Amino acid sequence: MVRADSSRTKTGQGAPVRSTAEPVVAVTGGSFGDNRTMLSVFSSPSRYTQGRNATASLAREMKTLGLYPPALIVAGGSAVRLLSQVWERTFAEAGFGYSVHAFGGECSFAEIERVSASARHSLAKVIVGAGGGKVLDTARAAASGLGLPVVNCPTVASSDAPCSALSVVYTEEGVFQEYRIYGRNPDLVLVDTEVIAQSPPRLLVAGMGDALATWFEAKTCAAGRVRNMRGGASTGSALALAELCYRTLLADGVQARRALELKAVTPALERLVEANTLLSGLGFESSGLAAAHAIHNGLTAAAGTHAYFHGEKVAFGVLVQLVLEGQSRERWREVLGFATSVGLPITLEQIGLRDLPRESLEQIAARATAPGETIHNEPFEVTSATVADAILAADAEGRAYSSTL
Predict the structure, then answer these.
(1) How many domains does the chain have?
(2) CA angle at residue 207 from 205 to 210, to 5 degrees?
(3) pTM of the full predicted structure?
(4) Residues spanned by the domain of 141
(5) What's the whole-number average pLDDT of the chain?
(6) Given the residues 101, 160, 192, 293, the one annotated as active site
(7) Are the CB atoms for 98 and 75 separated by under 8 Å?
(8) Same domain, yes or no, for 237 and 122?
(9) Catalytic site residue from 137, 187, 296, 376
């Protein structure tokens, strides 16, 4: 089980942000300024490559983009174990020098500086992150500080972090510290589905929870014409990708999980990994966030949730957003049916809050409605009292649905 504060989160306008060598882009969290003159902004990686054994093409993909050696690979333990020999072959074939920095386990100021020092020592011209969200965040932070291009090679499909232009920074002990927002997305995101297929099924399901929120939050932000993660209005293409993400989850989620349980790469898994990583990443960053992710942030105030992944808590946040927005019974049945079919939580008990004291509920609601939180992108006033009631109502809906199974 992984602590909540080791999962990757997303930010609202009021979150602390540290500037870097790159320009810092405005962070979403409620409309501000004169939205009548707001430009539409769509943001994405320069190149996205996905498929079985994609790592074998890593050096070639990098050269295609004009990225040159030497490279510094920031790698988690599983990435080193699964990919060391492949890196040796692909970089040797391309005549591409590289070195490996073993990730220290936390995206902290100290680890970012250690990676930066390794990059300076090796005279790196590009930084490659290989591993989970914290590895990618650290690589992105170090590359930004040094003004270097960055390549993200996720080894799990547990969130939409790989395509985004932000990092979440923690203390060495794993306590959230700040968000860093960058002016550009990764130069290359390369997803090896053979590697993804070796990861625990729960991680893929958590990614589905994160992706489940994308369309609901994107619709809310587009309808309200609030600023997205890049400081502009949403585009029709971003909203269409967010909807495709949702439809893909419904169509392929169950089969993709089964494939992962067998460690098999299937068409359903390929489509689902694309939904979790690319479609959700483009949808949230270029449309925006609303209640679901703010509820996640609120839930992290309760110690009982610390054993659960980001996407698992976001999935419950989607239910709270459905309550707040008064969504139809048909939509409720669809979402609850999907969540239970793949194993996402639909009750407070399923995210570690079986007995939730009123005081804890109020703390969660207060955190979720803090100034600048993305819940204020909803098209109506949201207070801590309405959120507390919505959390209880969402839990009741989940329990009632579970009792019919």
Answers:
(1) 2
(2) 120
(3) 0.89
(4) 4-196
(5) 90
(6) 293
(7) no
(8) no
(9) 296
Residues 301, 360: one domain? yes
Which tokens belong to 95?
Answer: 């005549």
Q: Is residue 150 within a helix (H) or strand (E), and if so which, with residue range?
A: strand 150-154
- Domain of residue 143, CATH code: 3.40.50.1970
Helices (H), 124-235: 133-146, 193-196, 201-224
End-of-domain residue from the set 164, 196, 228: 196
DSSP state of 200: -
**101 tagged catalytic:** no
Distance CA 309, CA 299 (A): 11
CATH number at residue 206: 1.20.1090.10
CB 195 within 8 A of CB 55: yes
Q: What percent of the chain has pLDDT over 70?
A: 90
Residue 17 has pLDDT above 50, yes or no: no
> When comparing pLDDT for 4 and 355, which is higher?
355
> Which one of the listed residues 210, 252, 376, 395 is annotated catalytic?
210
Which entry of 5, 252, 310, 395 is annotated as an active-site residue?
Answer: 310
Query: What are 252's two structure tokens?
Result: 């392929």
Q: Is 306 considered catalytic here?
A: no
395 and 281 fall within a common domain: yes
| CA separation for the pair 338, 303 (Å, rounded) | 27
In this structure, the answer to whether residues 183 and 210 fall within a common structural domain is: no
- What are residue 181's phi and psi, to 5 degrees? -115, 130
44 vs 124: CA distance, rounded Å: 24
Cα-based distances in Å from 161 to 60, 70, 142, 328, 352: 23, 25, 16, 30, 24
Domain co-membership, 365 together with 253: yes
Whether residues 161 and 250 share a domain: the answer is no
Q: Which of 143, 170, 196 is the last residue before a domain boundary?
A: 196
What are residue 130's DSSP bridge partners?
75, 153
Question: Quick count: other Cβ atoms within 10 Å of Cβ 405?
Answer: 7
- Per-residue pLDDT of 151-208, as tens digits, reads 999 999 998 889 999 898 888 876 667 778 898 999 999 999 999 999 999 999 999 9
Residue 112 φ/ψ, nearest 5 degrees:
-60, -40
Q: Are residues 189 and 205 in the same domain?
A: no
